[in-house]
Amino acid sequence: MLDEDLVKQQQAAYSVSGVDEETPAAPVLARENKKRKEPDYTSATSNADISIKRGRHDKKDKPAAERASKNTAVYVSGLPSDTEFDELVQCFSKCGVLEEDDDGEPKVKMYAREDGSFSGDALVVYFKEDSVSLALSILDEYELRLGDSSSVMRLSKADFSHKNAGGGTHTEAKPRKTVDRKKASQRIGKMQKKLQEWVDEDGFGPAITPEDSSHATNKNSRVVVLKHMFTLKDLEDDVSLLLDLKEEVREECSSLGEVTNVVLYDREKDGVITVKFRDPLSAQACVIKMNGRFFDGRRVEASLYNGKQRFQRNGMGDELEGENAEAEKKRLDDFAQWLLTEED
């Protein structure tokens, strides 16, 4: 054994002034401090210890957690008992591209009661999360079949939190892990393509078809043209319909934005009503909501006013503003004068 006095003499000979020999070297001290601080950065769960030791793994896990938090599903209730699958697909496709299964079918689930009849509830899954917000703002408390008060839908974001409460429900998600990756990739690519086609130059609805291109629309238009809202016979049979219908349309469209004017053209056999909004975005939302819906058994056509259509109604100054407004007004004035001459 070494003599302690000899050891102390050697330490004194190699000592450096101002340095405490009892203090560990810097690298050793850093390691010890790190060990002491590690518990401060961990949570109460055992998973937290793993994530600290695997810094790279944390970066990979984060996007997965973010993806899991995104909710692209809408829960729908209040649907008529005779609702058709295709009817729901057509309705909710107006707000975005629907998610598809491996067979290419839209992910729309219609829930049934114990006796097999439709319960009136459904789950609609979109490809993108933004479509959920659009559907909630446009279709909530809206009639699936326009004019049918029994078809008013209630929408909410789908809540899957209950699936994490019990262990039994986790078995439902296991089959998803065995999905053919190649098939899934092809399906996603197909939906990405649909998404590109869905966004037109206005940012809403399916891409413009060659037929639509012949009726160029002004994307900044604040006026929506609604057709097949009434028949001329309806107006003849009920004199109060004109005012009542205008009020109904104003009330319905006000949920999409501020409405500044509603005009019913009682001389148009196509049953035309125009709705003017404060801003173009509200007008575009109105087109999505109203186009293709049914009102009193008739299929409504909704489009943005393109600046060229001319509609007629009883009274003066009843044309939409445009290049030919003055010419149209003169034509109607001449026609009125001709009627007076015929009476004489």
The CATH homologous superfamily of the domain at 70-159 and 179-196 is named RRM (RNA recognition motif) domain
Q: Biggest sheet: strands, sense, closure? A: 4 strands, antiparallel
So, CATH architecture of the domain at 70-159 and 179-196?
Answer: 2-Layer Sandwich
Structural class: alpha+beta
Number of strands: 10
Strand content: 5-15%
**Tally of individual helices:** 12
CATH fold-level assignment of the domain at 70-159 and 179-196: Alpha-Beta Plaits
Protein name: RRM domain-containing protein
GO cellular component, one term: U2 snRNP
Region (Disordered): 1-69, 162-186
Pfam families: RRM_1 (PF00076)
In short:
The protein has helices at 4-14, 26-37, 46-53, 55-69, 85-92, 130-139, 181-198, 210-213, 232-237, 241-253, 280-290, 325-343; strands at 73-77, 108-112, 118-125, 154-157, 223-227, 259-265, 272-277, 294-295, 298-299, 301-304.
